[in-house]
Amino acid sequence: MSELHGVETIELTSGTVAVTTIQTAIIGLVGTAPAVNSGSAATATSGTPILDNVVTFTAETGAAGNNYSVAAVGGTPADNSAAIATSATWADSVLSITLGCDADGTITATPADVVSVVSNIANCPVVATGSGEGVVSAFDVQLTGGADEPFPLYTPVAVVGTTQITALGSDGTLAEALEEINYQRNALTVVVRVEESATETTQRAAILKGITALSKSKSVTSYHPRILIAPGFSEDDAVGKALETQAGKLRAVAYVDCASMATLQEVVLRRQSYGARTELLRARPQVSNDAGELVYRPCSAFAAGLRARIDYENGWWWSKSNQEIYNILGVEQIDEFILGEENCDANLLNMQNISTIIRRDGFRHWGNRLCATDTQWRFESVRRTADVIEDSIQQTMMEYVDRPLDKENADDIIETINSYMRSLVSLGAIFGGTAWLDEELNTVETMAAGVLYINYDFGPKSPTERISLRVRVNNNYALEELAA
After folding, report:
1. Cα 234 to chain center, whole Å?
2. What are residue 457's DSSP bridge partners?
């Protein structure tokens, strides 16, 4: 029975929603940095050296320790009572200390007394140190200066720009790789630091563990890496395959480096071990290091930075091939490049799904292909187009999950997808795309089970990898001139 005499307004939740395209230019980087900034503990000090009563309090945590405080008060004995011993308690981020005193209320506590009682508190995150013989006075201090370790081991950390690079130190692989990425563009990079080891097997194990940690990136940083690299380590096939496996889980691509001075035959043979989400990079760019020395570096960080730059400047549906790589001086091995010649090194590598670097108006990335044998998925730009569309639509569908399974909900889903396809066509990202109900799979039984099947397709744009110019000699032009 109605309990309202009047007019009410009810907001309906049906209708289409806008599909937000996922971020594509996010790099996942795994490496070492043994000289990393380890963070700092929050501290506070009471007393003075003149009175020999200095006590220092140090938090066991980093930034969280800045919320801790220490308050010490003198004991208050009851009338005609005995002296009071020093005591301490920990509660609500406050370390409370009652300073020992004699029967007259005169404080007698020494730094050693304070240190002793604090050390006996179970689960107290503050440590006290001090060995003076003076008497401690009442005080109230706040711990300050605490900072968390900026790059904890095996933990994804989002890095933008150059300000965070200094915290990594100059040793290891991470700082160099971030600089090489930033040569192309200041790209958002999810960094996973691993331990540096002197032995090959333990180092490999650490890198593999770090690659696995990339799957936690979305939960830890809110960013989802789409370009995965491990410069200095992906020459190892165990690392390369781990990057490829993780790329499959994350709908990403993996850039895998070839070993220094690897021959054409070696890289072609290696390529057969990889599949549809891996791009194999043969060339090693030459750069100048901080000491001014000319060194050759793995290509993957440069390629990742280039991919991010092209995403920003042109779009994720563009190939990075035939685009200039900034700030490199040369390459370790020169792959012969003759435009239009099938048997030159660069073309032979490309036809085997391996990318290289050519020198033509600067140094350019040369190669469109992943290691896939399926011609539908061999172009990186096509693979990434599919990933972008599938992930963007899938995430938007959360809006429709658990609504009533009826025509209205189905129509809203279909129109949401079709609207997104139209926007991508207008953007120039695809040729077209359409969504529709699957008439065969949608049955009374599936609807009763709460399952709705919707199909969609799209037409990706392949890169113009080959232009065939057909030419012939036409002597009729000479007759036309004479006739004129």
Report:
1. 17
2. 434
Helices 237-250 & 200-213, crossing angle to 10 degrees?
A: 10
Q: Express each pLDDT in 192-229 by its tens digit.
A: 999 999 999 999 999 999 999 999 999 999 999 999 99
Report, in this order, helix, strand and coil percent for the chain, each rounded to 5: 30, 20, 45
Q: Which of 138-147, 288-297, 352-361 has the lowest mean pLDDT?
A: 288-297
The angle subtended at Cα 447 by Cα 442 and Cα 453, nearest 5°, is 40
d(CA 38, CA 430): 47
Please list, residue by residue across 67-97, b when 16 or more beta carbons sit within 10 angstroms of its beta carbon and e when fewer do.
ebbbebebbebeeeeeebebbbebeeeebeb
What pLDDT, on a 0 to 100 scale, did the predictor assign at position 213?
A: 97
Give yes or no for residue 10 having a pLDDT over 70. Answer: no
Name 469's Cβ contacts closer than 8 Å, sequence gap at least 6: none
The tokens describing 464, both together, are 């113009």
Q: What 3-state class would DSSP assign to 444?
A: helix
Is 277 within 8 Å of 253 (Cβ atoms)?
yes
Helix (H, G, I), strand (E, B) or coil at 292: coil
Q: What is the pTM of this model?
A: 0.86
Amino acid identity for residue 82 in this structure = A
